[in-house]
Write a structure and sequence with these properties.
Blueprint lengths: L1 H19 L7 E5 L5 H9 L4 E4 L2 H7 L8 E4 L8 H4 L3 E7 L2 H13 L4 E6 L13 H12 L4 E7 L12 H17 L4 E7 L6 H6 L4 E4 L1 H4 L8
The structure holds pyridoxal-5'-phosphate.
Length: about 230
């Protein structure tokens, strides 16, 4: 079941790329496996999934030792500074950097271990009160401050769009973030790469791809409904 779903979503990713005239190799499908048992992750792995997204450090710590070692773990949930130590070196990319203070902690832990940790800045484009992330107006300043950390490398931006019935309602959000992403990319600041734009979930990933996403994070569409709604 999970394998079929994964392949179906992968196909939809490819179709969205085709519609947008994009190379499907530019878009990574992240299987968001939070709350799901390792058996289901294994099924997705068998179908070809190598990128998995989790929103709790504890779940990454439990799952990574018992699953194939070529899996890339993406930390996509709000990260507390006191958990940074546990996730540095395990997550291939931290999508949810939402404060300079958090980036400073990642710098500290990465420096201790002589690592450079790839991160994305989370942007709350719609300025929803319930969500984490920088407002667009604050993001450039934050980028400048975080770019000064030598053991953190800014790979791009992430957003969680509002929960809407019709994905089209989020098109403007995605378009706005893509425009900002391109503007920043063109400035070519040191240690700011803008290779990754992580946006789009089960309900709106196709629209996000049409608007320039390079990573989409799909949970429900692959693994089915979760017990309770998270984030
Ligand atoms: C849970 C989650 C997703 C996946 O959501 P679905 O609607 O189940 O696809 C994507 N991104 C983040 C940050 C999440 O927490």
């Amino acid at each position: 079941m999970v394998a079929e779903k994964y392949l179906e979503i992968q196909k939809r990713v490819e179709n969205a790329c085709a519609r947008a005239g994009r190379d499907p190799g530019e878009v990574t499908l992240i299987a968001v496996s939070k709350t799901k048992p390792v058996g289901m992750l294994n099924e997705a792995y068998q179908a070809g999934a190598r990128d998995f997204g989790e929103n709790k450090v504890q779940e990454i710590l439990e799952k990574y030792p018992v699953l194939p070692q070529d899996i890339r773990w993406h930390m996509i949930g709000h990260l507390q500074t006191n958990k940074v130590r546990q996730v540095v070196g395990k997550a291939c990319l931290i999508h949810s950097v939402d404060s300079v203070k958090l980036a400073a902690e990642i710098e500290k832990e990465s420096s201790k271990r002589n690592l450079v940790t790839p991160i994305l800045l989370e942007v709350n484009v719609a300025e929803e009160e319930s969500k984490f992330g920088f407002h667009l107006s604050e993001t450039e300043q934050a980028l400048t401050e975080i770019a000064a950390f030598p053991h953190v490398s800014i790979q791009g931006l992430m957003t969680i769009a509002p929960f809407v019935k019709d994905a089209e309602e989020n098109r403007q959000i995605f378009r706005k973030l893509y425009q900002f992403f391109i503007d920043i990319k063109q400035k070519k600041a040191d240690n700011v790469y803008m290779n990754v734009l992580s946006m789009g979930m089960t309900g709106d990933f196709e629209v996000a791809i049409e608007e320039g996403a390079t990573m989409v994070r799909v949970g429900t569409g692959i693994f089915g409904e979760r017990e309770k709604r998270e984030n």
